[in-house]
């Protein structure tokens, strides 16, 4: 079985926006968000495997994690973080220079804080969580299974400390 078969459909609002408006994807953000929610609800209703690309900064992902959990889905969360919000801002700027899409700095700052805040409730919902620090080379910081910490690096990045207290 290929990993793609196991994951099922990837629901990525940015990709949906590119499909809706190839010349100006940012103008389709709202429509893409609605379409992503529609697809997620349909996939859950039909019992199909799927993955979601998300910043975890909104409540809809947590809500749909809970709904999927109630429908006996196994929830696996890969959370990728950076040491600080400035690194996110710098990486978006670099991506824009290479032809990628722009995100307003105030949106990046907001999403960074909300994402970290939403990580704690996501840990309580997910069956398995793998936390990755992508500040330099990707590094698995911790793995949590059924609420139990089964792996943790010796030196926890500061951004991950609040959710890994007691590691």
From TrEMBL:
InterPro entries: P-loop_NTPase
The protein's name: Zeta toxin domain-containing protein
């Amino acid at each position: 079985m290929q990993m793609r078969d196991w994951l099922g459909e990837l629901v990525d609002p940015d990709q949906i926006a590119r499909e809706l408006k190839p010349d100006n994807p940012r103008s389709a953000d709202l429509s893409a968000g609605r379409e992503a929610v529609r697809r997620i609800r349909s996939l859950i209703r039909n019992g199909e495997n799927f993955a979601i690309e998300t910043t975890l900064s909104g409540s809809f992902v947590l809500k749909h994690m809970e709904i999927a959990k109630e429908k006996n889905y196994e929830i696996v969360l890969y959370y990728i973080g950076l040491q600080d919000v400035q690194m996110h801002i710098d990486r978006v700027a670099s991506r824009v220079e290479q032809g990628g899409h722009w995100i307003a700095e105030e949106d990046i700052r907001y999403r960074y804080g909300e994402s970290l805040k939403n990580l704690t409730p996501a840990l309580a919902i997910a069956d398995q969580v793998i936390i990755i620090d992508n500040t330099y080379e990707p590094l698995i910081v911790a793995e949590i299974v059924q609420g139990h910490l089964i792996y943790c690096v010796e030196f926890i990045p500061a951004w991950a400390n609040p959710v890994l207290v007691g590691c």
